[in-house]
Amino acid sequence: MEAVPARARGYVAAVAVLALLCLLPLPTVRTPWWALGLLTALYAACEYAVRRRFGSTFHPVLLAAAFLLPAPAAALVPLPAALLCPVEHRPALLRRLWRAARPALAVWGAAKVHWTLGGRDAVVGSDFPYALLPAGAAVLAFCLILTVLDGGILAFAERVPLRRAWRGLLSRSLAPVAVHGLAGLMMAVLWRSPYGPVAALLVLLPMWVSWWIFAQYHRERAAHQATIRALVQAVDIKDGYTRGHSERVGQASVLIARELGMDDDRVEVLRFAGILHDVGKLGVPTRLLRKEGPLTPEERRIIELHPEYGHEMVRGISFLGEARAAILHHHERLDGSGYPYGLAGSGIPECARVVAVADAFDAMTSTRSYRRARPVETAVAELERCAGTQFDPRMVEALARALRRQGWHPTVTADEPAHETAPRQRAAGTGTPR
Q: HD-GYP domain spans which residues (predicted)?
């Protein structure tokens, strides 16, 4: 992103000034310069290798510095890495400044907390389990500072509302940083032991292996995402009048899932379910999807097979989990009048009831060749009218609450169709495209 808002530049500059203030006492602090130099070089090498290979950050050496050095010296450790690591996006100078100031503040805070709680003496004396208490507090301080800074940059650079900018940041980062903190504590204890820094470096070997495993997992997820994108693009090409519909249904499904308090893994599964809910249209003849005018009963029966086609297409993709059930049952109705199996009530999988509401909502709020988009309020009112017969009232209410609080601002990467042909009849049911 080359055009960075002025307020984001000001925010980064303010963070950089705070980091510089943390460094000011350095000349007056008793610092083991050889240890500072070694840790700085080690962190720069690890950060360069990890960013280049895994595209992420590496905190064990940084946290070891927080456990071994005074706070101003620890804050100096991440600075050379920020200057040496390549920057892929512009503006490079601003990004380097952010990469330097952000970890400097975090490690300064961690070192300050660790020192205040007497952690340095515990590390020198290898005093377990007492050493875990100040180390844990330091890791928590490290995470909190990163959370505050990251939420701020989201609010100022990405214009994320303040009430959402910090949501989930701490919970997602605490576990992995805690593991890094434990490795950093092991490094610090070995560093202060008779075996010295060489023994401390051995801690990095299992961490490197764990990062390699982590990178393999993310490569697999990237392959999954590519598979999903290819399937959705194929549907968009075949049935162009609903282009972008799949992505919006995925986003609406996420709104409902989060409002219901589902965990992050289930929210991700619901996103997949929404995106892929119409993938079975690939098995429907194109002439029916693009037919002008009303469908015959036989043609409608053929189109109503698309949930089963979709389920067959994705049944072997294990990572989709319960999303496969949503693909199969998203046209079922609460009163049992839906298809393909006429399930009713709680017999319809929960994920399918979520996607059904998201699907109908987007159908009503999107412009179609046979009508203009309805306002969000009108669509929600229609969903509420049909709650209890066609839709699960719990899912409808969850969507309504989320929309009242956040609004509806879907982000869709698919291009809009250039033009539409003559109107076509929609399928029976409230706002549901065929």
A: 220-415
| Position 332 in a domain | yes
pLDDT band at 22 (very low <50, low <70, confident <90, very high): very high
CB 19 within 8 A of CB 77: no
Structure tokens at 369: 């060749």
| Dihedral angle computed from the Cα positions of residues 340, 343, 346 and 351, in that order, rounded to the nearest 10 degrees | 0
Give the DSSP letter of residue 241: G
- Spatial contact of 290 and 235, defined as CB atoms under 8 Å apart: no
- 264 and 133 within one domain: no
Does 120 share its domain with 266? no
* Contact by Cβ (8 Å): 269, 320: yes
User: DSSP assignment of 262-319, as one string?
Assistant: --HHHHHHHHHHHHHTTGGGGGS-HHHHT--BPPPHHHHHHHTTHHHHHHHHHTT-GG
The token pair at 116 is 């205040």
314 band by pLDDT with thresholds 50, 70 and 90: confident
Residue 208, domain member (yes or no): no
Domain containing 332: what range? Answer: 221-406
